[in-house]
Amino acid sequence: MRLLVTGASGLLGLNLSLVAVARGHQVFGLTHHHGLRGVPFNNLTINLLETRDALIKIEKTKPEAIIHCAAIADLNRAEKQPELANRMNCDVPGNLAVAASRWGIPMIHISTDAVFDGVTGGYTEDSPTNPLSVYAKTKLEGEQAVQKAHPDAIVARVVFFGWSMSGNRSLAEFFFNNLSMEQEIKGFTDTLFCPLYTEDLAEVLLEMLAARLSGLFHVVSPEHLSKYEFGLRIAEKFGLRTDLIEPIRMQEVARGAPRALNLVLNPEKVQAALGHPLPSVNAGITRLHQRWQETFPKKLQSYAI
Description:
Blueprint: E1 2-6, H1 11-22, E2 26-31, E3 42-45, H2 51-60, E4 65-68, H3 75-80, H4 82-103, E5 107-112, H5 134-149, E6 154-158, E7 160-161, H6 171-180, E8 185-188, E9 192-193, E10 196-197, H7 198-210, E11 215-219, E12 225-226, H8 227-238, E13 245-248, H9 268-274, H10 281-293, H11 296-302
Helix pairs in contact: 1-7, 4-5, 6-8, 8-10
């Protein structure tokens, strides 16, 4: 399949592109600010905010499917630049969905667990949303724009961890980097989430595409834990000091953009559609560690220009 991946230098986009290539797909990875070199897929530099020009260039690749990963994902940046966040997180996916629908091809739009307020947790696809931040609000509006323009598209709410090209894009890297240098850090005991390892998530997304699913799905681990517990598991797996992680409540810390606390999502819908459970957090951490042993992080960093 000729697969177009936006945000191909990002944490999910790069891992997804590499997994797709390994699965035999022909990948066209779109980047803008962070270029790539030496990657085993076609890399195109395109500014998605220049809509008309971007769509002309994209159409020339003759994509057979689009997976849209690009976004303004920095919560504090979104708060400071709400207009940019709205254009990137709402307008761009909507425009891509219009084009994908016109071309008659499937699309997966990557959304976020942050569309919920985190008061109750245990959210299903039918649970009422209540985004707290500019980032979360614009991502929810992006979901709605995609669903309106391309009803057969997949909207995947995700949360993930893994190795990135910059080496500092995921919570796993935060814990690993600091603990490796024996730096004392804090781990939140009152923030709950259910993250998937990036390569696990990439494989599930490609499986969803092959199964021709459509609609809204929570594509997360069936297991949830606090970010403090996540840090402990990273430390234990890599043989690092757990005592360097100080348990603390996020409610006690002054933060920038408002953040939800209990973002436990229910993945039963996608598990039923695919006929199997999604990977556990521990299985993901095991893969994370294995890839570190294989020097995969250094390989990713070598792709940076």
